[in-house]
Write a structure and sequence with these properties.
heterodimer; A: 277 residues; alpha/beta; Rossmann fold; 4-stranded antiparallel β-sheet; 10 strands; 39% helix; globular; B: 275 residues; mainly alpha; 2 domains; 85% helix; 0% strand; binds adenosine-5'-diphosphate; binds magnesium ion
Chain lengths: 277, 275
């Protein structure tokens, strides 16, 4: 990304290309200790959408996510990101792709030797030539965006779980990525914090015109944020479609899942709840 | 009275214990090969990364302070006490031969050629090697290392290179200081309880100690430092699981680094004697 282009122009350009396929899985296989975690996964992620990957714990949602930025390599199949196959790239060759992606890890993965300011500034200082003044402006802006202004001097250990995730989100967006990968952004948080994070995901996706992939087993979050949901089960996506299609689906697999998560499907109760935005 | 031939199945079961043993041995062997393969690959990448950009010099300075300067107390104390004890023991064993005037020579030679380097290396393996594994290990299990990779920053460049270079640079410095402190420790004993003069002690050192002794002693420590830091980093980055796994890896670092120091000391000593 050239720094001469204004942020507004970047987001406009991105908005114009909404809907094109930005990430594609083709027959991806991944085996861990004899178990096929991914068994021929096919998936297309479109620019501008918020795709929620749903599924029970341990089915390979995180593994799927880690294939998108090459943290994990498939045993077979192809992963295409920004029109380029990334499965055979070396770590060095992956750098340009990774700079256009950001990942929010489950525990936040903040560097605990650095304060909040240095954490958020870290990717900016690494990859751009911005002056210290510009860097601290970016830090302040992103912190504002996640609703935590003025905590630059705090250390990660002084923050609550929800705050850590929001700082991690601030760090993820500091380089204005095209795609943000969220691994369980709301797991382990109280309902109020969860709701805040979910709103932030929608907000960031809209304001920065990013594409988001949200791995979660939290149905409330999926409902708030998703453009589409993809349901992973036994190594494959058994369902891909909108949230409403998922809840009204006649697939016993999906119905069982939603019921197990405490959502009555097909009874009309669920659909009656207005969807806030 | 011909015995019936035992069947193949019978032979198999009779030897089952042995087969199990061989199998377990084979598995350990292949794990070892895998471990060493990974370690040497990381070492290769580290060497390649330490001579190319980007290079994190700020991190290097931090680590030299953290891993080197802050080890001074423990390595210095160890050498000082060892020098003193060495003087007492030497005096005791040479008394019968009337060889007290050799104390300075023996203490300084043992320290500079062998005890200074090896004791410093073992102390650094305990303090620094374990510290590196604990730090990188907890970064690994909390996904901080993956976070670096996801930001297109190489953990080898950012985490491994500064630590390896810091320990490599600091080991000879720590050892040189340890040598001096050890000799002073010996001097203390020689003067207070053996009745030598400071002058005699120092003269006997000057008569004995050659530049080659000093260089062979300090030269070895560069290798020791490399081994400690490489094993420490590799074990840290390899951790899988949670806090308990970090603990086990830390122990493993101290054990492996100590063995590696002792074994390589043998070969390095022979090598340096050849010159
Ligand atoms: N690096 C790894 N080594 C071995 N097994 C792994 C690894 N990563 C994931 N797995 C296994 O893959 C399965 C799916 O993991 P994951 O994608 O984390 O599940 P989730 O859907 O809860 O995110 C788990 O059973 C886990 O044990
Ligand atoms: Mg997961």
């Amino acid at each position: 990304m050239s720094t001469a282009v204004s942020p507004a122009e970047v987001t406009q350009a991105r908005a114009a290309r909404r809907g094109e396929v930005i990430v594609e899985f083709k027959e991806v296989w991944k085996t861990y200790s004899g178990r096929d975690i991914l068994a021929g996964v096919n998936l297309q992620i479109r620019r501008g959408e918020v795709l929620c990957v749903l599924g029970p714990s341990g089915t390979g949602k995180s593994v799927t996510l880690r294939h998108i930025n090459g943290l994990t390599r498939p045993d077979a199949g192809d992963v295409i990101v920004f029109g380029e196959s990334i499965v055979a790239l070396s770590e060095e060759e992956l750098s340009p792709v990774r700079r256009r992606l950001a990942m929010l890890f489950q525990g936040g993965a903040l560097f605990d030797s650095m304060n909040v300011e240095d954490n958020i500034a870290f990717p900016v200082r690494e990859h751009t030539e911005k002056t210290p003044a510009e860097v601290s402006r970016i830090v302040a802006e992103t912190l504002n965006m996640v609703g935590l202004p003025g905590i630059q001097r705090k250390m990660p250990s002084e923050l609550s779980g929800g705050m850590r995730k929001r700082v991690a989100l601030a760090r993820s967006i500091s380089l204005e990525p095209e795609v943000i990968l969220y691994d369980e952004p709301t797991t382990g948080l109280d309902p109020v914090s969860s709701e805040k994070i979910a709103q932030l995901i929608v907000d960031v996706n809209h304001r920065l015109q990013t594409t988001s992939v949200v791995v979660t087993h939290d149905i409330v979050t999926a409902r708030t944020v998703s453009t589409r949901v993809a349901f992973l089960h036994q190594g494959r996506f058994q369902f891909i479609g909108t949230f409403d299609e998922a809840t009204s689906s006649s697939s016993p697999l999906l119905r069982d899942y939603f019921r197990a998560m405490g959502f009555p499907c097909g009874t009309g109760v669920f659909q009656a709840v207005p969807k806030g935005d | 009275m011909a015995q019936p031939e035992p069947s193949a199945t019978a032979i198999f079961y009779r030897n089952l214990g042995w087969l199990r043993f061989v199998d377990r041995f084979g598995r350990k062997g292949s794990q070892t090969v895998e471990y060493l393969g990974g370690l040497f690959q990381m070492i290769g990448e580290t060497i390649a990364a330490s001579v190319s950009r980007p290079f994190y010099s700020g991190e290097l300075v931090n680590e030299m302070d953290e891993l080197g300067v802050k080890s001074l107390a423990i390595t210095g104390l160890t050498a000082f006490v060892t020098g003193a004890v060495l003087a007492i023991q030497t005096a005791y064993s040479l008394e019968a031969f009337g060889g007290k005037q050799f104390i300075g020579r023996i203490v300084s030679l043992s320290l500079v050629r062998e005890l200074g380097p090896i004791l410093t290396a073992l102390m650094v393996a305990g303090r620094v090697g374990s510290g590196i594994t604990a730090e990188l290990g907890s970064m690994t299990v909390t996904e901080q290392v993956d976070a670096l990779r996801s930001m297109a920053i190489s953990p080898i460049r950012r985490l491994v290179v500064p630590r390896v270079l810091a320990v490599v640079f600091m080991m000879p410095v720590l050892t040189a200081i340890a040598d001096v402190l050890g000799i002073i420790g010996g001097l203390g004993i020689a003067v207070t309880s053996i009745g030598m003069t400071v002058q005699d002690y120092i003269t006997s050192i000057w008569q004995q100690l050659a530049i080659s002794d000093i260089f062979s002693g300090l030269g070895k420590t560069v290798f020791f430092g490399f081994e400690i830091a490489a094993i420490g980093c590799y074990n840290g980055l390899q951790v899988e699981g949670g806090a308990a796994a970090v603990g086990r890896s830390t122990t493993r670092t101290v054990v492996l680094a100590s063995i590696s120091i002792l074994v390589s000391d043998f070969f390095l000593t022979k090598l340096f004697l050849a010159f």
